[in-house]
Every structure is written in structure tokens, then in C-alpha cells.
Amino acid sequence: MKPLDQEKYLTNSNFMAQYKIDDFIKAVEPAHQTFAKSTHEVLAIGSYKVKIESKASGLFVSYSHPKTKRSLLNFVFRKSGLLVRLYPDNASTRFSMNNLPASMEEELIKAPDCKMCSEKCTKGNKFLLRGQAYDKCRYNSFLFVVTEESKPILTEWIEKEVKKVQNEIINQ
């Protein structure tokens, strides 16, 4: 993340009303701009609606499908850099948890356990990792720092989720 660009977007009154995807891409660290842009393109082709807001830590980008009303992904800035939060359905049946980089495994394991925090909660994410069953909070379990190691895996998972939603809509 480039602090000067981020500061400009948070304080410049010309940007306070509406943000565009290019504003977000410019705020992303150059090493991850291609990933952010290609992820946006995959989601745009899949008819996902994008919402961009200013938060204390920077721009927050959320993608949801207008037909399902479900969020699939958020881009979030933190001190550690750009993060992707995925909201997959039945992650264990579509996502390969084998051969994840150690950093992604650690992030999955350290995520809080599902406590069924509200009546609206979809009851977390259940998955197997190295032979152990986990039941983690839906809102924090698939939150990953974007790194060179994580980008190909995140891209694969995002594309699988987009295809799954497209198939659900077609089969309705």
C-alpha cells in the first residue's frame, strides 16, 4: 500500500462522494495491482456489483451478486497490506486445502471458531486441513493477506465461486 496515495484518497474532498475501481487499484501496492484488477474483471464478467467505501484503514471494496444478494469477496487494507476476505459456500467441497502455503494455513487455523454469532449467521465454514476438521467463523476464516504465494490460490478459488454462482442462477 502506498501511504501517500492512500492519504490523498482519504483527505481529498474531490474523492469523498464516489470512488471508482481505478481509485482502489491506484491505492494498491504496485506488486498486487494486476491481481486486484484481474479479480475485478472476473467478478465484473460474472455480473457482480461492486461497492467501494472509505474506511479508517483505506478503501474497502465489496462484491455481491445482484440475484443472490450474497457477498463473495471484500478487498481490505490493513497494516499487513492488501487482504482478501472470501465468503465461500461449502468451501470444503470446492476448494483444495492440500498444498496451501504455510501462511494461508496459519491464517485459516488462527481464525476464530464459529460461535453462531447471530440469527442471520450462515453457520460458519467447515473444512478439513491436514486431516483435521475445522468449523470457523464465516466472516473471518477466509481472510488472507495477498502475497505472491496466495495470489494463484485466491484466483482459483474466486473463479470457482463465480462459476458456482453462475451455474446456480442458470439452474433456477
Jot down its keywords.
single chain, 172 residues, alpha+beta, 5-stranded antiparallel β-sheet, two-stranded antiparallel sheet, 6 helices, 7 strands, globular, disordered N terminus
Topology:
Blueprint: H1 3-11, H2 21-27, H3 30-45, E1 49-55, E2 58-64, E3 71-78, E4 81-86, H4 91-94, H5 102-110, E5 125-129, E6 132-136, E7 143-145, H6 150-170
SS summary, helix count: 6
Total domain units: 1
SSE class: alpha+beta
Uncertain spans, ≥5 residues at pLDDT below 50? Answer: 1-17
Helix content: 25-40%
Q: How confident is the prediction overall: mean pLDDT?
A: 84
Oligomer: single chain
Got a strand count? Answer: 7
Radius of gyration, rounded? 16 Å
Q: How much strand?
A: 15-25%
Shape: globular
Largest sheet: number of strands, sense, barrel closure: 5 strands, antiparallel
Termini separation: 41 Å
Q: What sequence of helices (H) and strands (E) makes up the elements?
A: HHHEEEEHHEEEH
Description of the molecule:
By secondary structure, this protein is an alpha+beta fold. The chain has one domain. It is built from 6 helices and 7 strands; from the N terminus they run αααββββααβββα. Strands 1-2-3-4-7 form a 5-stranded antiparallel β-sheet. Helix 3 (30-45) runs parallel beside helix 6 (150-170). It is globular, with a radius of gyration of 16 Å. The model is unreliable at 1-17 (pLDDT under 50).
Give a quick rundown of the structure.
With 172 residues, this protein is of the alpha+beta class. The chain has helices at 3-11, 21-27, 30-45, 91-94, 102-110, 150-170; strands at 49-55, 58-64, 71-78, 81-86, 125-129, 132-136, 143-145.
